[in-house]
Amino acid sequence: MGALDGDDGRSQPQGGAAAWERLRSGGAIRAALATGARHAQGRMVLYVMPGEQQMRVAFVCGRRVGGAVERNRARRLLKEAWRTLAPGAQGGFDIVFVARPDIRGARTQDLVRDMAEALARAGVTRP
């Protein structure tokens, strides 16, 4: 798996909450990174770009975070934090979450807090 891979393929949060799907193509992820609004918050950076009707989300973790085990754990933490906050998300956006090296050793609760602040600043969720 490369650094631009999206989430694990589960396109609907459990429990029938707000609909979102995986942002699949590397080109779409690169476009969001290049032209999307950047919102840095703690252990992650959020890129938001107005998208199509349905929300599309990707989770990116580069080699600066660490080896494969650390990168996979970081992606899992980002995905779990997103699943917690996804029901409150609104609108059609392309969203890319990028893990920072500080994510190592973080807990899900820490990321939920960081992610909630970044999503509210970006206008994806209500504060």
Strand content: 15-25%
Specify the helix fraction band.
25-40%
N-to-C CA distance: 34 Å
CATH class: Alpha Beta
| CATH architecture name | 2-Layer Sandwich
Number of domains: 1
Give a quick account of the main beta sheet: strands, pairing sense, barrel closure.
Answer: 5 strands, mixed
Polypeptide structure, described:
The chain has helices spanning 26-35, 68-85, 108-122, and strands at residues 20-22, 37-41, 44-50, 55-60, 93-99. It has 127 residues and is an alpha/beta fold. The chain has one domain: Ribosomal Protein S5, domain 2. Strands 1-4-5-3-2 form a five-stranded mixed β-sheet, with helices on both faces. It is globular, with a radius of gyration of 13 Å. It starts with 19 loop residues before the first strand and ends in a 5-residue tail after the last helix.
Pick out its properties.
127 residues, 5 strands, 3 helices, alpha/beta, 5-stranded mixed beta sheet, Ribosomal Protein S5, domain 2, globular
Summary, kept brief:
The protein is built from three helices and five strands; from the N terminus they run E-H-E-E-E-H-E-H. It has helices at 26-35, 68-85, 108-122, and strands at residues 20-22, 37-41, 44-50, 55-60, 93-99. Helix 2 crosses helix 3 (108-122).
Map the helices and strands.
Elements: E1 20-22, H1 26-35, E2 37-41, E3 44-50, E4 55-60, H2 68-85, E5 93-99, H3 108-122
Parallel strand pairs: 1-4, 4-5
Antiparallel strand pairs: 2-3, 3-5
Helix pairs in contact: 2-3
